[in-house]
Amino acid sequence: MSPDLPLRGLADDLAERSDDALVELLIARPDLASPPPRGTGVLAQRALSAASISLAGEGLDLLAVAVIEAFLDASSAIGERKELLGPVSRDAIVARLGRRARRGDVDARLDQMVTRALLWGTGPRRRGRHTDWIAGAHLPDALPWRAHNLLGPIAESTPAQIRERIESAAERPRELLTTLAQGSSLGRSRDAAPDADPSAPVPTLISLGLLARIDEQTVELPPQVGQLLRGQPPLETAVLREPPLTGADGPGRFDAKAVDAAGAGEALELLRHSGDLIEALGTAPAALLRSGGLGIRELRRLAKTTALTVSRVGLLVELLARQRLLDAGAPDSDAGDHLADDVFAPTGAVDAWAHLSSGRRWLGMARAWLDLPRQPWQIGDTDREGNTLAALSSELFDATAAASRRAVLAPLADAEPAHPVSPEALTAVLGWRHPRRLRRLNVHVVSETLREATELGLVAHGSLTTAGRLLLDVPADAESAADVLAAMDASLPDLIDYFLVQADLTVVVPGPLDPDVADRLRLIADLESGGAASMYRITEDSVRRTLDTGRTSAEIATFLHEHSRTPVPQSLTYLIDDVARRHGRLRVGVAASFIRCDDTAMLTEVLRSEAATELALRALAPTVAVSAAPLRDVIDRLRASGFSPAGEDSSGALIDLRSRGVRVPARGAASSPPHRRAALGPGQAHAVVSRMRTADRAAGPVAAASASGAAGETVSTLIQLALRTGRRLRIGYVDAQGAASRHVVHARSLAAGQLVADEEGGEPDLRFALHRITRVEVL
Fold first, then answer.
1. Is 107 exposed, middle or buried (0-12, 13-18, 19+ CB in 10 A)?
2. Is the bond preceding residue 87 a cis peptide, omega within 30 degrees?
3. Is 415:249 a contact under the CB 8 Å cutoff?
4. Which letter does DSSP use for residue 256 in this model?
5. Separation CA 265–CA 454 (nearest Å)
6. Which stretch of 31-40, 371-380, 656-665 has the lowest confidence by average pLDDT?
7. Does the pLDDT value for residue 682 go beyond 60?
8. SS3 of 700, please?
9. Which of 2, 172, 277, 282 is deepest in the core (most CB within 10 A)?
């Protein structure tokens, strides 16, 4: 500690830094660059503000917090100062941390805080670096807690020793600890004063080191104690080193290739379930809550229809709505029962989305999840008022959700491929890296985030897949992710164009089918079980459905023979021929509707059936009858009576009677959620630094020999000199409102009583009236 060293201000320190050092500062603390500060003096004022220092504290790990606590503890021995703290020597900081931290790690944290302008050096240098440090008065705002918990009585205790202290306390003090652990860690009590009754619960806990005294009426629960009481992984402070992320056993049972394959399998399941949900909502759109969300009752209905869990449906709804594949709106459908109110249904974009490759759809789902401003795993939980959280509801909105999701996955990228990481180990590492988020990033949040990442195919067997690693490296605002798409395509299994037709009329598909083949197979057969290997069943109704689209029995048989690796059973051939023989003998057309049949006996049978009365059929000829009912109703009622009609258009050609499902208009693409801190690129940072340097030069001292007052002739002479030599000018200027300013400019022309110049690092083509220029200096 060297209190006699000069208290150099941060503005002087920043002015001496190189442009690259200032760029590094702005990238680390982007809030300082908005709006661009006019000079390093303004930058220093912003960097020393309490709000900015608190924001910078979010990027500090546990050892950096310990270094700040040691600095503050050492500076308190010097005495109180209003503006600056310190100077504090490196040796004083190292002495307070002892052997709990390596000196190299302490030096690295000091360099980090100097880079971020939380500390700056003063006095002589040793080996090119300062040995004494100064900080602003608001440095304590960078801490995640009020007390110096990393230097306190239990800082060097192991979790087992802390647990022994907790168990040694009486029942009433333990209840107090539990209350503080579940709620705010700060508590107010008159017993917090040093002269309070030592037998009271608060003084007892303070004496055990289980509470820290802030002032005479305020105490704080140390984070080490709170973690144990909440059943979370303990915060290790006896040794200030990052806990291990993976065990010492090496890689798990699965290699990197198996991890990628497992992730691809999960992704294919996710896409299949997405298709099932889209189809279910197209058939029966969901009702919306008044708040605009999708209620738990509708989620349960969709879960029953699709044979999925409610949590799975909630996740799919959020992801598909994020991509505007599902939305709320007025339905575009012929079904009259859906036209009363807005519904939640597929948009027109799903028809094009379904024809994209599996890799592109997977990438869209993964990016939608990473940027989602909600936590889907919270759907179905209750808020503080007991209300159930609905999907897509505003109550579920969380501006920090995307940042928290990336923070949870970031440590996995540091682990070796195929090395599994447990949720507990990951939570412990997150507590070390983000002590300010110690309560928010708990085991439950981490486990649910990993579960969703696993369902997205980004995590498998406890480690990141190749696609997941690459996706985390892509900036949130990047438009393309070619490397990620290539990795996803490489991990997905090759498409096949064959299947196995069984004697029981089932079709086994041993892998992902080619999209065209899959579409035709889903038309001919009904899906019974999906997955990596799926099974379909061909029935009389499925064959009739295919014939309704205009395909013939010969085309169906040819498709099965071409793509089946097993012989097509004769029973299936008989079924197709039998349904085709009866199909289409009766024709229904549009009049309102007409029925045409070459077999007069069959038409007579139709006219004698109960359907004729319900449809108000009237015979126009021995082979033609008409009805006022719509085409779809006539076909459905005749089929219910045991007939097999087919639809035809005005030219007599068969028409596809399949319903496309309900569709709602697609709104604009979803925008990314606003981040709490906008990222600042190197190019932007360099531009801000350039403008600050210009402002510093404009505000610099005036050289009397080269400056002039308002004498027009001298001003013009200096401007002409700058035009001839190409040198810069520093001018003082008063605008029409009387506001004075200084500028460093490159003169371009002088005419009509005006100077036209480009401001260095600023706007081009500025015009300055000569009679308003108060001073000119040639630089």
1. middle
2. yes
3. no
4. H
5. 10
6. 656-665
7. yes
8. coil
9. 277
Residue 675 has pLDDT above 50, yes or no: no
Q: What is the Cα–Cα distance from 450 to 457, expressed in whole angstroms? A: 10
List Cα–Cα distances, 500 to 158, 504, 512, 532, 565, in angstroms.
62, 11, 13, 15, 5
- What is the residue-wise DSSP string for 136-198? ETTGGGGSSSSS-TTSSTTTT--HHHHHHHHHHS-HHHHHHHHHHHHS-SEEE-GGGSTTS-T
Going from the C-alpha of 370 to that of each of 426, 468, 647, 672, 689, the distances in angstroms are: 18, 11, 47, 10, 32
Instruction: At 285, give phi and psi (nearest 5°).
Output: -60, 155
Instruction: Estimate to the nearest angstrom the gap between the alpha carbon of 506 and the chain centroid.
Output: 42
Average pLDDT along the chain: 86
Sequence-distant (≥ 6) Cβ neighbours of residue 303 within 8 angstroms: 309, 310, 312, 313
Residue 709's pLDDT is 46
- Distance between CA atoms of residues 28 and 742, nearest Å: 30
Say yes or no to pLDDT of 710 above 50: no
What is the DSSP-derived secondary structure letter of residue 34? S
Angle, vertex CA 198, rays to CA 197 and CA 202, nearest 5: 90
CA 38, chain centre distance (Å): 34
**Which whole-number Å values give the CA distances from 705 to 161, 680, 696, 718, 723, in the listed order?**
74, 42, 20, 12, 19
Locus of tokens 């009020």: 146
Q: SS3 of 628, please?
A: coil
Reply yes or no on whether the pLDDT at 39 is more than 70: yes
Are 700 and 323 in contact, with CB atoms under 8 Å apart?
A: no
- C-alpha triplet 531, 537, 540: angle, nearest 5°: 155
CA-closest candidate to residue 403, choices 144, 628, 673, 666:
673
